[in-house]
Amino acid sequence: MDRIQGSRCPRCLRVLAPPARFCPDHPVAMEPVELHGYGDVISFTTLHSPPEGFRSPLHIALVELPAGARIFCHGSETKLLRVGRRVAVEAVDQVFYFSHLGLADRARLFWRRAGDRGERVTAMAKSVVKRLFRGPKDETTEAP
Amino acid sequence: MSDVWIAGAGMTRFGKREETLQDLMAEAALAALRAASVEAPEAIVVAAMNPEEFVGEGNFATHFATHLGFAYVPALRVETATSSGAAALFTGFAAIAAGLRRSVLVVGGEKMTHLSTPRVSELISRSIDPHERSYGATMPALAGLVTRTLMAGHGVSLREISQVSVKNHAHGALNPFAHFQSRVTLEEVLESRVVADPLRLFHCCPISDGAAAVVLTAEGTGIRIAGIGQGADYLAVRYRDNLTSFRATQAAAEAAYRMAGFGPERVDVAEVHDAFAPFELIALEDLGLVPSGKAAPVTMSGETALDGRLPVNPSGGLKARGHALAATGLAQVAELVWQLTGSATGRQVEARVGLAHSIGGLATNNWVTLLERAA
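^ Those are the sequences you sent over. The predicted structure of the assembly is below.
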């Protein structure tokens, strides 16, 4: 299933997403790790004149996953967003998206990208909701 | 280590300029050489962040040296993104402190306004982590993220942030070298259009052309470089666990104070990197110039205005003097030289020790320089 791919430093156990080749704190190769797709909002912004190739307004959030990795995410809107709020995160075509708990939001987000791939959308939405209800205690799991 | 002196400083007016980059640099360099009474330096250090893309010229140190008639003077180019001017100053400083040179011309400049704003924005954003850039992160976007955490976690208001712009525009109105020489009101700042929520247009510095230069010498009696420090941080903003202070500033300040043998209590005037208005508040605390949590109230009470206890950005800062990238770090130093020697006509403050603070990238490669007027 769609988990977030990250990497972990074997020396300091620091976790990053997306995976990096070397730990930014040591010249040590990182190991792959899988992370849960939810986290807490550290900050967010909306660009009204985004760079070429992005639609305006462009919503960007910085989200901290339970394993400690912070990731950049896109989202459909930031009206309900607050610093510290928990959001769902999903990778679609290697791009992270945050969304609120509401299914309607999630469906809209994925429809926009997924087009007519409706089945995939439903499966992804389900998977995220399931994960969210497992709560934050569930720590990082390693790749099999 | 030998003492290093600033024998002279010069700069062009910042703003939209028609001249070429090499002509802008020549104007600043000749002014600095004239002020220093130095006819030809032993070496030249050139700072330009991205002349390859902005003006389509490479090998720029030699290009500039030949252009100004110093073809036989050894020249090199230094780059640390938007703090390149400060990095060039360090390079010249190191050469003289080590006894390798007796005089060095340090000149920085950038020419951008002939390109479209989106194009300039895109070129500047190449100093951002590529993954973050792939999300559309520009400098204003990252500054927007920083600003929101500052407001949410530290109770800083948009009004307090906006007061930085009001103050720096008031200073810029008195500086003939400033890009913007007009005042703005708090309401104008608060009502300007949103760039990267919660940041508005008047919280952001402009895109400026310009150049600045200083002449460093091994002998002197005027202004001494008392300390100079560099600080580093992750390229990726998402790797940092704190967005409301910049480690690169703190480390640079610590190194500069250690070299100088004194701390922030001796600083009388500061030029800080207010590329975005909230960055001035962050800098004041990271530099130890005001206690933690006090930058906003100190700004509101006027302590950092020209007639305040600690004038900050008497030039107008990046906000009003303008931000010609690689020229900026040297323009800050030029302003301090004029302030310390009593030649900042119209905006003169009483000062013996000045601090310059320059940010490279989104606070990835920062510099702090301390200047002291000889007793």
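Residues 112-119, 129-144 of chain A have pLDDT under 50 and may be disordered. The longest helix of chain A spans residues 118-133.

Shout if you want it in another format.
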